[in-house]
Amino acid sequence: MIDSRYEMVIGLEVHVQMQTRSKIFCGCSTQFGQGANTQICPVCSGFPGVLPVLNQEAVQMAIKTGIAIHGQVRPVSEFSRKNYFYPDLPAGYQITQFELPIVEHGHLDLHTESRGAKRIGITRIHMEVDAGKSLHEGIVGGSWVDLNRTGTPLMEIVSEPDMRSSAEAGEYLKKLRAIVRYLGVSDGNMEQGSFRCDANVSVRLKGAEKFGTRCELKNMNSIRNVMRAIEYEAERHIDVIESGGHIVQQTRLWDANANLSRPMRGKEEAHDYRYFPEPDLPPLHLTEERIETIASSMPELPETKKERFIEEYALSDYDAEVLTNSLELADYFEAVARTVAEKGQADPKAAANWVTVELLGVLNKEGLEITQSPVPAAHLGKLIYLIQNNTISGKIAKQVFATLFETGKDPEIIVSEKGLKQVTDSSAIEEEVEKVLAANAKEVELYRGGKTKLIGFFVGQVMKATRGKANPGLVNSILRQKLG
Amino acid sequence: MELSSLTLTQAAQLLQKREISALELTQNHLERIARLESQINAYVTVDTQGALAAAKAADERLQRGDATPLTGIPIAHKDLFITQDLATTCSSRMLAEFKPPYDATVTRRIKEAGGVILGKTNMDEFAMGSSTESSYFGPTHNPWDLERIPGGSSGGSAAAVAADFCVAATGTDTGGSIRQPAALTGITGLKPTYGRVSRFGMVAFASSLDQAGPMTKSAADAALLLQAIAGHDPLDATSIDTPVPDYASLIEGDIRGKRLGIPAEYFGDGLEPDVRKAVEEAIEVFRGLGVETIPIELPHTQHAIPTYYIIAPAEASSNLARYDGVRYGHRCDDPKDLRDLYFRTRAEGFGEEVKRRIMLGTYVLSSGYYDAYYRKAQRVRRLIAGDFTAAFKKVDWILTPTTPGTAFKLGEKTQDPVQMYLSDIFTINVNLAGLPGLSIPCGLDRQGLPIGVQLIGQVLDEGGLLTAAHAFQKATDFHLKRPTPLSAP
Ligand SMILES: [Zn+2]
Predict the structure, then answer these.
(1) Residue A132 contacts B, CB cutoff 8 Å
(2) At A420, phi and psi to the nearest 5?
């Protein structure tokens, strides 16, 4: 926790790799993980005389994202060149949007646990081209360059410095990532670098108006790392200020292993990018019709979906939030709820519970995504139905679920193979009850003497004897009747 | 008749009628090059084998009867057009060994039309210069006087056409690099509207100004060559998507009643008397053809040179960043580290003029100077374009001298870059405004050196300019004059 007299000021710059079929200025494939320099052409490798031609699919994706964050799509935007030398930047400049980005003035609403709703401004979204990769490890006497990634379309989403805690930053990133995934614009994978975040962090005394000197943090490959890095950096700033020093504006790299940030070498910061409008690309004109057509074809986004889940399924705000965090999870939940409704009685709350508590519990433990779930939604739905129609008890259901997770088998088959069908035959239960009462004469006496709490003990004994298969309701009523 | 002196129009007719073969035409040119090229240095590369193979293929195509006017025509390309598997050097040490794996749209279109590529012509390094003296491969000599420059940067193409080393050539024009050498070598040079011809595969100098065009023996020839290379190209986002008119039939049109604007700003003190006289006589020729002449004003003309020398180097400094020794082209020996690789590669690979412009461009784009220079230059550029828009409300075409003087001596201006830059003073405005401009011969000075007159048109009016030039050439014989030093045995 940071010193309570201070507050953090955080702005985030997120680079999103767009999942277009081809690169932003040429026809090369963007497929990940191919052999080095197998997906390049004279255009993306900066050969003489070649020219960029803008990929309209990337434009489409940037517009979609702009609409999703309530931004204004500019009718005329412009590309510029950002000039610097680097071996993995073949043309010696990066084409990016500078003075006139495609989207401006957006926002994202967070629902923070502590402070409720909060709006984070999004200054702009601009398109730009990704660079290649320099390879140094294991190479003697030089470096190698892989240009496969060169030319991959990126979208840079720049927030206002509106966040005040690492939790807000984490929340903002999760929301943004959910949006780009919903839109099919990006896989949002931070580990593979298709969703990269730089954080601008400063601190100031609470109530102060002026911003403190900020540092830019780079090199964070998970939301957790972003949060840790922000906290570390804020504490570092406070320590420096409290000990009478002052913060030097700089770019720092986050070292996740050492759990600290360190300054990048000064030389790399002394850049003058000499921006100027890209003469090879005419300004990008977007008609209102085009923007409207895209707006009307937008899929349901997390916010709207959440509202609908609360409305349609009567879910809690929390459940709806968790379930709509990812499109795949939301779709999964709806498939489970649908199966339950089709087979028996609609029970979205039960569906939500099974998905968020049981399924996500194991998935998290195994480090799996919902898309990797071994449990088909229809099977989980069927499991809930088996509880509804008294085939199994809730307790047995958890047992069945464990097997279901391991094998992916139809729960009905699991129940019959393992003989887990609930015993609802009252004579069979009566028999077990008699045995339990006979074996525990002392407890029967105590119960009849007024220690009615012992009913739980008897139920437990009967359930144990039937290996959990007895219908607990029946066990209860038969017991009460016999002990009566 | 010497085959090598044929115009494109004449050669195409003889080829179609099968009175000559593409092979003999090509051989004739190759022989002439072999005999006389050492005096001129018009070529960086002569592709004898490629040309002979293309000529044979052209003859088969002519036989089959599916030929175009370019089929079998020996053509030379300025060495900044990318040619697949054929060295493309930009007359720079940086690209001296570069053999590209692709074709420029211009060269591809000419190949597809059946043109025979004789080779690649000399030029100022990366098209920076007005005399072809900044070439890594040595200067080109003007066929009219071997002591003199042929103009630049397309000096090799101009000299090759003037010396009958090819039937026609391609050039590029960023600030006058087609029109100025055309004027100084007595040929016809057309810079089309910016975007009319694809820039794909043209090694970029200043992207917002570069334009490819034909360099030929007549306006009729230019119409045929332009026909083949003009038109929209999906590989160039700045290329104009408007159908290409049939220039060859267009040029026979009547120019009577057309209005020719004469801007006072182009007839000031700097103009050599012989040039003034020849251009004034050209105006009389046009009057005689029924054209009305109208005095006009282009008040921002004087700002063209400083504006150009901010914008062009700015774009060039960025366009030339890719020559870093990492992927292709020249690389210094045994670099210590990355900085050393960049520094030495570029120090060794680029010549003086290129370095001067890179530094100038880097300076005007640097933070703190951008507004004072680049942004202001862009504003002035719009004013210059505005001058033309206003003038074209009153006139159809504008007539000016192409150059202030005739070809100067080799070495005369190399020590004074500003003097060199001033030789493009009448052509640069046209590039800044993106308009089409054309230079045709209109006489000889008292030393027997060619003089050019420039016609400037509105956006996409290449057809009009060619029509006017063709009418002029039907009425005069300046374009038929050939240099004497080479015609002597
Ligand atoms: Zn490519």
Answers:
(1) no
(2) -100, 5
Edge-to-edge strand list for the sheet holding B116-121: B43-46, B116-121, B74-78, B168-172, B212-216, B188-191, B437-444, B450-456, B397-401, B259-263, B292-296
Token duo for residue A16: 């999103």
Pairing of strands A80-83, A215-220: unpaired
Catalytic-residue membership of B4: no
Chain-centroid distance of CA B33 in Å reads 21
Q: What is the ipTM of this complex?
A: 0.95
CA angle B100, B104, B105 (to 5 degrees): 155
Report yes or no: B106 and B170 within 8 Å, Cβ to Cβ: yes
Contact map slice: A 73-112 vs B, CB within 8 A: 81, 83, 85, 87, 90-93
Strands (E), B26-83: 43-46, 74-78
Band the pLDDT of B56: cuts 50, 70, 90: very high
Active-site residue, selected from the candidate residues B177, B198, B218, B423 = B177
How far off is chain A from B274, nearest CA to CA, in Å? 39
Are the C-beta atoms of residues B6 and B14 closer than 8 Å to each other? yes
**CB-based neighbours (< 5 A) of ligand 1, an ion:** A 26, 28, 41, 43-44
**Contact, B462 vs B193, CB < 8 A?**
yes
Q: Record the tokens describing residue A190, joined without a space.
A: 């931070």
Rg (CA), chain B: 21
B157 catalytic residue (yes or no): no
> Which tens digits make up the pLDDT trace of A391-446?
887 788 888 888 889 888 888 888 778 776 777 777 778 888 888 888 888 888 88
pTM: 0.90
Task: Give the CB-side neighbour count of residue A334, counting CA atoms within 13 A.
Answer: 13
Yes or no: say if A463 and A470 are a contact pair by the CB < 8 Å rule.
Answer: yes
Distance, in Å, from the CA atom of A161 to the CA atom of A169, rounded to the nearest integer, reads 10
Q: Closest-CA residue in chain B for A91?
A: B322
Q: B313 in contact with A at a CB cutoff of 8 Å?
A: no
Interchain proximity B321–A48, CB inside 8 Å = no
Question: Are the Cβ atoms of A83 and B328 closer than 8 angstroms?
Answer: no
Q: What is the pLDDT of residues A186-212, one digit of tens each?
A: 999 998 889 999 999 999 998 898 999
Strands A72-73 and A103-112: antiparallel
Distance CA A85, CA A442 (A): 88
Average pLDDT over residues B138-149: 97
Per DSSP bridges, beta strands B292-296 and B212-216 are unpaired
Round the CA-based radius of gyration of chain A to a whole number and report it.
Answer: 30
Contacts of B154 (CB under 8 A, 6+ apart): B78, B121, B123, B127, B169, B171, B172, B173, B177, B178, B181, B189, B215
Query: What is the whole-number distance in angstroms between the Cα of residue A17 and the centre of ligand 1?
Result: 16
Q: Report chain B residues whose CB lies below 8 A from the CB of A50.
A: 102, 200-201
Q: CA neighbours within 13 Å on the CB side: how many for A298?
A: 26
Go through A325-353 and write b for each residue having 16 or more CB atoms within 10 A of its CB, e for each that does not. bbbebbebbbbbbbbbeebbeebbebbbe
Q: Is residue B355 annotated as a catalytic residue, yes or no? A: no
Angstrom distance (rounded) from CA B296 to CA B281: 18
Q: Which of B484, B479, B482 is nearest to B219 (CA)?
A: B479
Phi and psi at residue B203, to the nearest 5°: -60, 120
Furthest C-alpha separation in chain A: 99
Q: Tell me what pLDDT residue A121 has.
A: 98
- B323-328 long-range contacts (CB < 8 A, ≥24 apart) are B323/B94, B323/B95, B323/B349, B323/B350, B324/A85, B324/A87, B324/A92, B325/B349, B326/A87, B326/A90, B326/A145, B327/A45, B327/A46, B327/A47, B327/A90, B327/A145, B328/A47, B328/B98
A49–B82 C-beta distance less than 8 A: yes
Q: Where are the alpha helices (DSSP H) in A325-483?
A: 327-343, 348-353, 360-366, 377-388, 394-407, 411-418, 426-439, 441-448, 455-465, 472-483
Q: Report d(CA A475, CA A479) in Å as an integer.
A: 6
